Amino acid sequence: MTATAGLNNASRVGSIPLSPALGAEITGVDLRHPLDEDAMRAVKQIWNDGLVILLRGQDIGEDDQVRFAQYFGPLNQSKKQRAHHNAANPAVMWISNIRENGKLVGALPDGEMNFHTDQSHQETPCSGTMLHALEVPSVGGNTLFANCYTAYETLPDDIKAKPEGKLATHGYDYDNASTQRGTVLREGVPHATHPVVRTHPETGRKSLYVNRLMTLRIEGMDPAESEDLLNDLFDHSERPEFVYEHVWKPHDLLLWDNRCTLHARTDFSAAERRLMRRVTILGERPF
Ligand code: OGA
Ligand code: MN
């Protein structure tokens, strides 16, 4: 990465596709400095087209990350602050398996996670999630991203019409930090009901909006029928040709669009440290 003095401007912003499925690496941006309006417009366009953006080699602090995230909209304030030497900004949350004095310093600590989209169990799920890698294991802990526009557009004929106009209920228990479908949810954990096919507010494109980790049932269907259809939809949307697998390096920064992608995490050794700094951008009610 070439360091740019002062403001980042649009003439330097470039992009390289990450995979046939989705993703774009953005070049010519140094997040230690602000972006001017045209540079941000270029970045947003690359995000809308690519669904996931990657900026490599960003040796940045939390203020730099928060400033960049704020260009995309107001940020969620993390409700639960955990002890960590570095977490001064309330928008920052840590994803980590590190334990200090026996206590976790972050959320979603260990191992594999099923495909999901962030906060689909809330009325207004975040539009985007940004992770900045500080420490990564030598093997695994990769993040997989699936393209839900493609999933919708390529639904097989025998199930194509079924999700149209349907609503699904999503539930999740962050405190329990379940990472696999089928975990029994405690009474009173947050639930929300959203369209199974949603429309992206910026691109106008339709995408499939159900996920293996958090989607409990399709409303108005017999439970067994709902489970069968959901499993077909999960299997379809997770097909390898719709997926990009990101192998992290320290100082990678990724922003994904929760309105049109799913993500999952591969397993990694509990003996290795993983530390990600996370901010999420407030979203809108899915429609
Ligand atoms: C998340 C998440 C995946 C990862 O932060 O929402 O799912 O690779 N993270 O840690
Ligand atoms: Mn997630």
Description of the molecule:
This protein is α+β, with helices and mostly antiparallel strands. The chain has one domain: Clavaminate synthase-like (Double-stranded beta-helix, 4-Layer Sandwich), CATH 3.60.130.10. Helix content is 17%, strand content 27%. The protein has five helices and 18 strands. The mean pLDDT is 93.
Please outline what is shown here:
Helices cover 17% and strands 27% of the residues. The chain has helices at residues 37-50, 62-70, 148-153, 157-160, 223-237, and strands at 14-17, 24-27, 52-55, 93-96, 99-100, 103-104, 113-116, 128-135, 143-147, 167-171, 191-195, 197-199, 206-208, 215-218, 243-246, 253-257, 261-265, 275-281.
Give the % helix.
10-25%
Terminal Cα separation, in Å? 39 Å
Q: Count of helices?
A: 5
Number of domains: 1
Element order: H for helix, E for strand: EEHEHEEEEEEHHEEEEEHEEEE
CATH H-level superfamily:
Clavaminate synthase-like
Biggest β-sheet, characterized? 7 strands, mixed
**For the record, what CATH class applies?**
Alpha Beta
Q: In the CATH scheme, what's the topology name?
A: Double-stranded beta-helix
Give unreliable regions as ranges: none
- Mean of residue pLDDT? 93
Strand order of the largest sheet: 1-2-3-16-8-18-4
Number of strand elements: 18
CATH architecture level-2 label: 4-Layer Sandwich
Shape: globular
Query: What structural class do helix, strand and pairing data support?
Result: alpha+beta
Provide the β-strand percentage band.
Answer: 25-35%
| Bound ligands, each once | N-oxalylglycine, manganese (II) ion
